[in-house]
Amino acid sequence: MSHAPSRDTDRPLSAAGAAPRGRLARLRLPALLGVLALAATGCSKNDVPRFGFPKPITPQGERVLSFWQGSAIAALVVGVFVWGLIFWCVVAYRKNSDELPRQVRYNLPIEILYTAVPLIIIGVLFYYTAVIENYEDKQTAHPGLTIGVIGYKWNWQFDYPSVNGSKALQVNGREGEPPELVLPTDTTIRFVESSPDVIHSFWVPSFLFKRDVIPGRDNQFELTITKPGEYIGRCAELCGVDHDRMSFEVRVLAKADYQKWYAKASASTTGVSPDSALTAAGSNS
Questions:
Q1: 32 and 117, same domain (yes or no)
Q2: Distance between CA atoms of residues 155 and 202, nearest Å
Q3: Residue span of the structural domain in which 35 resides
Q4: Rounded to whole angstroms, how far apart are CA atoms 27 and 35?
Q5: What angle do CA 200, 174, 262 make, to 5 degrees?
Q6: Is 1 a member of any domain?
Q7: 163, 235: one domain
Q8: Residues 274 and 175 in one domain
Q9: Model confidence at 194, in pLDDT bands (50, 70, 90)?
Q10: pLDDT digits (tens, 9 = 90+) for 94-139
Q11: Is 126 a domain residue?
């Protein structure tokens, strides 16, 4: 009794091996064109998306944003490489016969490769993280301005030092009226944080930086603001029942306008409110 030859055994092995190679050859040109299209766009650094981050207004924030963008690009490159390997295996090694492919589970070079490459990636990310953190934590011997930041239940207090014998300023928020922190551009500003009760967190999104305000510890950091404008500040720590009230406003003035505002505010006997700060600095508008 005769039997018709099966499809797998009837096909020569050379033809079975040639089919995947032919399909791969057809995929090479589209893949190459895709890579060339990406490279030919000539995107500049400013064209890289910010991934939801606001545009930074400090050199420290610029470095943080660059780090996040670089990390995202590196992750995308690794992802594309892995996706390429997956699709290549799907096309090249789909079942064409009952013959098992060559086994590489004990391939020492491949095992060394997929162990060493992740270690190198982690090492590079760790290095740049440490460099940027050290840059953000760097403090000068004589900052241009020192601001005391006190977070308390449930608002903020900002203390300005006395300058040339003038009265020291103190800005307090009130219920329904967040405090306004007035700052100059192009000045090294040191923030000294403290809290009398629970942990808060001083956060201005446009700084791309936040630091916890911890009872019993004076946390400090410095930055330089490069762009005037109005910005929003928040408490980034869930500090209690009225956490949502702990907002504040940041008003950044050009250095000359800040000095005019400070002279008027330090001479005032009624304190500094957000409205009076804007009025006193009206020359900026």
A1: yes
A2: 11
A3: 15-95+106-137
A4: 13
A5: 90
A6: no
A7: yes
A8: yes
A9: very high
A10: 777 788 777 767 778 888 888 898 999 999 999 999 999 999 999 9
A11: yes
Averaged pLDDT, 201-229: 93
Residue 2 lies in a domain: no
Q: Does any domain span residue 22?
A: yes
What is the dihedral sign for C-alpha 185, 189, 194, 200? positive
Three-state DSSP string of 110-130: HHHHHHHHHHHHHHHHHHHHH
Verify that 89 and 120 share a domain, yes or no: yes
Peptide bond into 261 cis (omega under 30): no
Question: Which parts of the chain are beta strand (E)?
Answer: 145-152, 155-160, 169-172, 180-184, 188-194, 200-204, 209-213, 219-224, 229-235, 247-253
The pLDDT tens digits of the residues spanning 66-103 come to 999 889 988 999 999 999 989 988 888 777 778 877 77
Q: How confident is the model at residue 282 (pLDDT cuts 50, 70, 90)?
A: low
Cα gap 147→221, rounded to integer Å: 10
Percentage of residues in the chain having pLDDT higher than 90:
45
Residues 133 and 149 in one domain: no
Q: Which CATH number do you get for residue 186?
A: 2.60.40.420
| Tokens representing residue 141 in the block | 């011997």
Residues 179 and 79 grouped into a single domain = no
**How many folded domains does the chain comprise?**
2
Same domain, 88 and 157: no
Burial grade of 156 (CB within 10 A; 0-12, 13-18, 19 or more): buried
Other CB atoms within a 10 A radius of the CB of residue 251 amount to: 19
**How many whole angstroms separate alpha carbon 5 and alpha carbon 45?**
62
Please state the rounded mean pLDDT for residues 181-204.
94
Global pTM value = 0.71
> What is d(CA 252, CA 284) in angstroms, rounded to the nearest whole number?
10
One domain, residues 150 and 278: yes
Closest CA to 96 of 41, 39, 18, 156: 18
